Amino acid sequence: MEKQEANSKLLQARKMYGRLLLFPLPAQGHINPMLQLANILYSKGFNITIIHTSFNFPNKSNYPHFTFEAIPEESLTGFPTRQGSVTKIVLLNKVCFDPFRDCVKRLLSNSSADDRIFCLITDALLYFTKDVADLLKLPRIVLRTSSLSAFHVYYLYPILLQKGYLSVKDSNSEAPVSEAEPLKVKDIPQTYQIEGEDLGMMIAEMMTGTKAASAILWNTFEELEQSVLPTIQQNFPIPSFTIGPFHKYFTASASSLLEQDKTAISWLDMQAPLSVLYVSFGSLAAIDKTEFFEMAWALANSKQKFLWVVRPGVIRGSEWLEPFPDGLQEAVSERGHIVKWAPQQEVLAHPATACFWSHCGWNSTLESICEGVPIICSPSFGDQPTNARYVEAVWKVGLVLENGIKREEIERAIRRVMIDQEGKEMRMRMSCLKKKVNLCLMEGGSSYKSLEGLVNFILSL
Length: 461
Prior knowledge:
Low-confidence stretches: none
Radius of gyration: 22 Å
Distance between the termini: 38 Å
Number of domains: 2
Mean pLDDT: 89
């Protein structure tokens, strides 16, 4: 409660500069960092207008200090909310042009000298906004919600495609990819295992739109990804600001599209310190029933306490827990607590949480690093395989489940991280990263200075 009040005072005690327009991609993992960024920039003196679609829109009542502008509902009539993610993103970039242009044009015409609009900040995947910004002569900054490392792997897509990595027949190849270390050959098809032709086009458009932006914002911190930062700056010679982790500037933002089950915290309160495995595969990943059974048996057999997020719809073809066979749910219930969705930042910060079994989306990976919690990695697609490899091979703060979801391998991984000396060493390295996070946000730290640089850059536009 005290921290929330401090946040409120910080947001109120601010200078007054002008207005920024922010447009997030309407998906949980993209909305969260954009709204966190909005709070950061608001605290620095900018008024904020959030432009959003008619689906997956944020709860406005949680952000009374922002102005919200919806793209007209009729412009998105018939938009396929259940198609694959790449197809949806490509279609979104096609259908939003006219209504988004009209919205921004209206906002510009209604702006005043006392509240002038400095620039547009959009998700990098909303590449159509480049043409709108050019048309209206409005500076455009892009936010990339992945890690620097994952973005670099996307940048290498044409090279990896040309060299045949995407069509490799040996899906279990442990050979390294020299162009994208520390990735293995088997990681590349998994990274790009999304809808074919649209993927290449989407990546190309994102890269073109990013290079044409006035600047790039990153939800990461320099000390974590300093090895790849010079390469990014060389390939994208525009101002680049690493001002993350966004969520550490304020308490957890109320931007979840799913209702959080607070019993997760009350259950953790009853557990011993460093005794609980937290399991969550985020807001998009899905598993089949066989994988669900393997997970359940592995958790039951691990002899460790666990908090398991089973999101409705995460099991393909099922609503929620109905696939549980007789006996398995009872075995799970002895040691675990199952919820539909959890307040993840609170869970990871809880003294009882010892390990995070994750899909390794960037928000989850960064949140785990910030709280010093080692990770067991089950990446699915996109940036997740890259994040997982960095967790294991570069930062050495977790393990990758190399063979999918197999109960014996899961049980071994849980023992290695939660019981063995190996896990204690991971926790020590995680603790060092956590300290670096705290230092980078303090006055004089890398993210602190980068944020000051960003504010000055915006004011110069």
